[in-house]
Amino acid sequence: MLLAADRWQHEYLCARGGVRCAPAFCEGPPSWGSSFVTDQAAAPPGKLDAAVLKIAGVVVLGAIMSILDITVVSVALPTFQTEFNATYAQVAWTMTGYTLALATVIPLSGWAADRFGTKRLYMLALLLFTAGSVLCATAGSIEQLVAYRVLQGLGGGMLMPIGMTIMTRAAGPERIGRLMAVLGVPMLLGPIGGPILGGWLIEAASWHWVFLINLPIGIIALVYAQFALPKDEAHPSESFDFVGMLMLSPGLALFLFGVSSLPETGTITATKVWVTMLIGAVLVIGFVFYSFKPKHPLLDLRLLKNRNLSVASLSLFVFVIAFMGAGLLFPSYFLQIRGESTLDAGLLMAPQGIGAVLTMPIAGMLADKIPVGRTVPFAMVLIAAGFFGFTQVGTDTSYVFLCGSLFVMGLGMGGTMMPIMTSALRTLQPVEVARGSTLVNILQQIGGSIGTAIMSVILTSRLNGSAVIPGAANPQTGEPLTEAQAAIAVNHGAQLPIPPDILQRGLQFAADSFATTFWVGFALVVATFIPIAFLPKRRKPATGGAPGEPAVETPILMH
Fold first, then answer.
1. Torsion angle of the four alpha carbons 414, 416, 422, 425, in this order, in degrees rounded to the nearest 10
2. How high is the pLDDT of residue 403?
3. pLDDT score of 184
4. Which residues are listed as membrane-spanning (predicted)?
5. What is the pLDDT of residues 372-393, one digit of tens each?
6. Do residues 325 and 455 make contact, with C-beta atoms less than 8 angstroms apart?
7. Which of 93, 124, 200, 428 has the most CB atoms lying inside 10 A of its own CB?
8. Which helix (H) or strand (E) holds 413?
9. Strands 36-38 vs 19-21: parallel, antiparallel or unpaired
């Protein structure tokens, strides 16, 4: 009996023509090497044909919605504070709630892709995300906004892993590098497009349009998906792992809830932090031991027996902790220390995206020809060099210097993230792709949450060490006002009767706090060189048999 993923490819490719079904295919579960005989008239190896690019367009639209939404909302947090009369800790849950929803739903994506079909599931994810976006625009309180963001996250959590599964199946193993480069463009343009778009929408219209912008994009993506994605009939071949779901999804959500509460409480000893982290960790560890027992676990950790997948996943995990955590603080520095508007802060982040756009297509082509272990270390050197520039920030650091640092970082980013993901997925069999994509996305999400929490805690604790201004109180909370808080507030137009020398001292303290936090981020970036040293340095076949078995050279799937 054919597994769902293999039958999908058999029906799709035979329906499209240009592929002859090998007898071995219908006799049992195939591998890439025995499933198909390619048409001699097919496109040259390595090139992305029109059919693949059409499918990639759907996935890129979904990725743009999901990734832009994260960065757009990040620059809107100060606006939410004013609009809903809330503290920063409260509005931060608009980001945290979204993250928790992602962590809850991503483990289900691999099983659901085989159970319901990738096209149907992807369109459902688009619908949930778009509906959640519209509801966010109608929110009348911070509590409502957080609840609607959770709904958004349920859709957004499925968009990336299902999208990666669709693209990988469509292109075949030999073209994963170039395909990941296509998908990587929105992933790296998010840091540039999100802040610029968010800043412009907030200044030109209102915060509601930060979410309403997803409505037309979502409608276009749904219509596009209906016509562009091939129909894949669901052929349930796996039972659902309910026990695993009851352990992993709540475990991840509780652990990340505790981690995300650290900036608010400022200490790991707070009950809300350590209790939820402990319960979550126990559930996740319990799942790790349990997952090797069922035949079809919710998250297939057996895939980590594949050395390429395990090394690439670890490299990506450490890299995301280092870069994504501190990366979110770059626009915060421009907003809080330099007093820039949301639009100007977004524009100042543009060099990073420009650098990524220049190197990503090159890195995608190289990933299909040269082992990533020989290219990624050079890209990481660029990231480390650019990141070092932000350890030197002050109250008046040259924008030319900072934008140059961002550009160098972008050059490195374009040659790092997608090649590592390519290395993780290219050696998997078709039936493993959905579960492999899910595993990679889970690790990436956890790493991003941990990195963001670490950097937020360090920055918050440093800022809280600023001297208190005698007799001054925070107008929002009534708590004593520190010099750093007053300086940041005045930078954003607040009228406070504070002497200029105190404000200058507070601003310098805040700038030093950012610099200290960036030093920690830089140390984590340097630590990333350890796992990437073990990335493959020899050219290997694109995919192989079951994890742990010798790889088999494979034909290319042409349409």
1. -140
2. 92
3. 63
4. 55-76, 88-109, 121-140, 146-167, 179-202, 208-227, 239-259, 271-290, 311-333, 345-363, 375-393, 399-418, 514-535
5. 788 888 889 999 999 999 999 9
6. yes
7. 428
8. helix 399-414
9. antiparallel
pLDDT of residue 399: 92
User: In this model, does residue 71 exceed pLDDT 80?
Assistant: no
What are 131's two structure tokens?
Answer: 């509906």
CA distance 469 to 479: 11
| 3-state helix/strand/coil string of 46-90 | CCCCHHHHHHHHHHHHHHHHHHHHHHHHHHHHHHHHHHHCCCHHH
3-state secondary structure of 320: helix
Mean of the pLDDT values across residues 477-485?
A: 74
Angle at 254 between CA 252 and CA 259, to 5 degrees: 90
CA atoms within 13 A on the CB side of 90: 17
- State how far the Cα of 65 lies from the Cα of 488, in Å rounded to an integer: 31
* Pair 366, 493: CB distance under 8 Å: no
Angle of CA points 118, 121, 127, to nearest 5°: 140
Nearest-angstrom CA–CA distance, 421 and 89: 33
| Nearest to 531, CA basis, from 322, 317, 363, 360 | 317
Low-confidence winner among 57-66, 146-155, 419-428, 472-481 (lowest mean pLDDT): 472-481
261 band by pLDDT with thresholds 50, 70 and 90: confident
Structural contact between residues 422 and 360, judged by C-beta atoms closer than 8 angstroms: no
Q: Sign of torsion, CA 246 251 254 260?
A: negative
Q: How far apart are CA 2 and CA 177, in angstroms?
A: 27
Q: DSSP H helical segments within 415-499, as ranges?
A: 417-425, 430-463, 483-491
Q: Does the pLDDT at position 19 exceed 60? A: no
The predicted model gives 527-553 an average pLDDT of 61
Q: How far is residue 57's CA from residue 237's CA, in Å, rounded to a whole number?
A: 29
Which tens digits make up the pLDDT trace of 297-324? 777 788 778 777 888 888 888 888 877 7
Euclidean distance between CA atoms 547 and 453, whole angstroms? 34
Q: Which of 265, 203, 170 is CA-nearest to residue 78?
A: 203
Residue 99's contacts (CB-CB under 8 Å, 6 or more residues apart) are: 153, 256, 260, 445, 448, 449
The answer on pLDDT for 14 being more than 60 is no
Instruction: Decide the pairing of beta strands 468-473 and 36-38.
Output: unpaired
Cβ contacts of 494 within 8 Å, gap of 6 or more: none
